[in-house]
Backbone:
């Protein structure tokens, strides 16, 4: 039996759209401090009835929506993805007219069984991030860390309809997972 636990090795790679909606990705950048990734499947089931029976069923895959929770959201992500601007005094500004950039999200979950723990690595290939909320609490006799949560929408890519990828430690792509966004081989 295997169990899955723990998220680590979060990276993002900014996407650029080319001809036919094909995405190319920049070099992945680390997002340290991952606390949780929660994504729910999006899409409806189409059911068609005929001859007094359920004639046809088709599930639509519209990607995923959810949240990435981090200890602290890095400044690079804020500028690269969310479109915040850093001025010459190292002050970050959020502009209401700024548009966020699409990106790939790379991550790892740990798997454990009777053997030593290994990881399963994942990639959401076309993500849009929403703005994180702002929260803080006073300190009392204990400290409870406040986290930053980024709302995510993970969509199918326009050119090939791919949504996500995953690989375990037996995959040839596993070792270089975080150096470049993985693409489907022929």
Residues:
């Amino acid at each position: 039996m295997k169990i899955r636990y723990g998220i680590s090795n979060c990276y993002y790679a900014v996407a650029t759209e080319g001809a036919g909606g094909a995405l190319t990705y920049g070099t992945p950048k680390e997002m340290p401090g991952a606390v949780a990734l929660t994504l729910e499947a999006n899409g409806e089931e189409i059911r068609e009835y005929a001859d007094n029976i359920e004639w046809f069923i088709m599930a639509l895959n519209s990607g995923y929506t959810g949240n990435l929770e981090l200890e602290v959201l890095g400044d690079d992500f804020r500028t690269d993805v969310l479109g915040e601007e850093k001025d010459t005094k190292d002050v970050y500004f959020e502009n209401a007219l700024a548009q966020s950039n699409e990106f790939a999200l790379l991550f790892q979950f740990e798997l454990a069984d009777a053997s030593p723990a290994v990881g399963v690595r994942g990639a959401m290939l076309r993500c849009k991030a929403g703005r994180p909320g702002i929260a803080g609490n006073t300190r009392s006799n204990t400290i409870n860390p406040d986290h930053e949560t980024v709302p995510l929408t993970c969509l199918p890519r326009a050119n090939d309809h791919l949504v996500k990828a995953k690989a375990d430690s037996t995959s040839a792509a596993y070792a270089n997972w975080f150096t470049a966004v993985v693409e489907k081989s022929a």
Summary: The chain has one domain: 3-170. The chain has one helix and 13 strands.
